C-alpha cells in the first residue's frame, strides 16, 4: 500500500441511489471582484450548505425553503445557504471572516406577494416561486411557526407590511437586518459533539438491556424431539418462550412471526436450500442465538417479494424494493427489538438484512461473504433500522456494514476486513462509529456519503486500504482515529465539522480536502511519515489551528520551537512547495529558516485569500498530540521534536 497509486475505483450501481450530481467548478457562479453590486446568482450555481440530500429529496415539490446567497470579498464563488439562520450561525464562528473575507452582498428569499402559507410541518409553501431581495433592506420574521428540516427558520420579505401580516398569522416578531445580525444562532461546538458520543453509548446500552431478557425466556419446545422440524416448533411455541434446537445440521428455511427466542444447544447449523433467505423474521421481540447459518441464496439485486409494504410515494422506493428483498442468512422486516447474538453466517449475498426494524441488536455475529469483494452485497445491511451492531466480524463482499436511512445507529468494536467498503453510510445521520478495526478495503474503510448530519466517528483504526476514511456531511465529529498505511488516510468532504486527536501515519497522502467551504475545525491531529501530509482542491485558505492549538506535522518540527518548546515559531503549510517537503528533502529545514520565507509565511498564514487552495497551521506543535495512538503504528520513531530529538519512547 506504500506505492503511489491513483487508480479510480468505480462503485457499482448497487451502491448508488438516484442521480449523483457532481458540481464542476465551471458550473459555479464566480464572483467578479470588480463588481460592487453583483446581481443574484441562480441558487443551483452556488456552493450550497445547510440541507442534507435526503431532506432535500424528501421535500414536496411545492415547498420553497428560505435561502440566502452571499458574495464574499475573499472567496471566488457564491455561497448558498438554506436558511438565513444558517448563514448567521456560520458568520458568528471564529475565523469565518479570516477565511472568507467580509460579505460584499447578501441576498435573501423574498416572500412578498407570493401567497405564502405553511405546510403541516411548518414548511413554507408559496403560490409562486420567491425571488431575491437585498438583505440590508429586507424585513425578517423571527420565531414564527415556520420550519425547515433543521428546525426553526427566519422568513424574509422585501415589504414590511407583508412580514407583519405573516407574523400576525403564524407568530413571531419582525426585525430589520441589523437586528437579525445581532441575534445569536447557536451551532454545535466540539464539547457538544463529545457529549453526543456519550449519549450514543447510552442509547446502545439501553437497547441491549431491553433485549437481554430474551435469553431468560423459559424453554417451551425442543425442536427435533417434540416436533419433526424447527419450523413446527416455532409455530407451536407460546409467545415469550424459547425454542431449543439440539446440536446438529437442519436443512430448513425458517420464518419467525412471534416474540420467541430460537436458541441452539451445542453446535447447530441451519442450512438453507441455496435459494433465498434462510431465516426470515416478521415479528417483534425475536431472539436468535447460538446458531450457524449456511445455504443462503445468491440474489443481490432485483428483490420483489417483500414481506412488508414499501411506500411507493417515497423518492427511493425503487431502490428499497430492489435491494431490501435480496437474499440473506437472516432477513428481518418490521422486526423491532430484534436480537441476533452469537450467530455465524456464510453467504454469497448478505449476512443480516434489517428493514424497518428499529432498536435491533446484532452482537457477536460473524459473517463470511464471498472472497471476491466485487461479489455479494453486505455483511450487515440495515434499511430504516436504528440499531446496534457490536463485537461482530465481517469479511468479504461489497460492503461490510451498510446503513441506509438508519439514523441513530451505533457501530462499536467490530472487525471488518476485505470489502470494497468496510462501513458505508448513506442518508444516515446521528450515528456513532466507535472502536472498529478495518483492514484491506478496496475503496474505503469508512465511507459517509450523501450529506448527513451529526455523525460521530471515533477511535477507529483503518489500515491497508485505498482510502481510510472518506467523510461527508455536516456537524460531523471525527476524533481519536488511526489511519495508517493507506493510499489516502482521510478524505474531508464535510462542512462545520470537528477533527481532533486523529493520527495519520504512513499513508501516501495523509489528508485530501475536497470540501469547498473552509468551515471545519482541525486541531490536535498528528501527521507522520506520509508521502504528502495534505492536499486540497481549490478554495479559500483553510486554517487548521485554533488560537494556540494546532497539529503536529512531521517536518514542521524542523522549525525552531518557541520559548517553552510546545509550538514551532512560524506557521506550517502542508500544501506549500517548501513546507510539504520538510520531512522528505535534505536541506529544506535550512531553506525554510530564510528570513524572506519566514516573513512571507507569516503574511500568508494570516491574510484571507493569500493562499487559495492551501492549508495553514498557525500553531504547529513540537511533539505529537496523540503519542499513544501513534505508538500503535510503525511510524512513531519518525516523529521528532523542535529540539531535534525523537519523541517516541519505543525501543
TrEMBL record:
Pathway: Protein modification; protein ubiquitination
Keyword Zinc attributed: no
Domain Periplasmic copper-binding protein NosD beta helix, chain residue ranges per copy: 381-554
Presence of the UniProt keyword Ubl conjugation in the record: no
Keywords: Membrane, Repeat, Transmembrane, Transmembrane helix, Ubl conjugation pathway
Matches recorded under Pfam families: NosD, NosL
Family annotation (InterPro entries): N2O_reductase_NosL, NosD_dom, Para_beta_helix_rpt-2, PbH1, Pectin_lyas_fold, Pectin_lyase_fold/virulence, SCF-Subunits/Alg-Epimerases
Transmembrane segments: 9-31
Biological process per Gene Ontology, one example term: ubiquitin-dependent protein catabolic process
PANTHER family: F-BOX ONLY PROTEIN, F-BOX ONLY PROTEIN 10
Name the UniProt record assigns to this protein: NosL family protein
Species the sequence originates in: Natrialba chahannaoensis JCM 10990
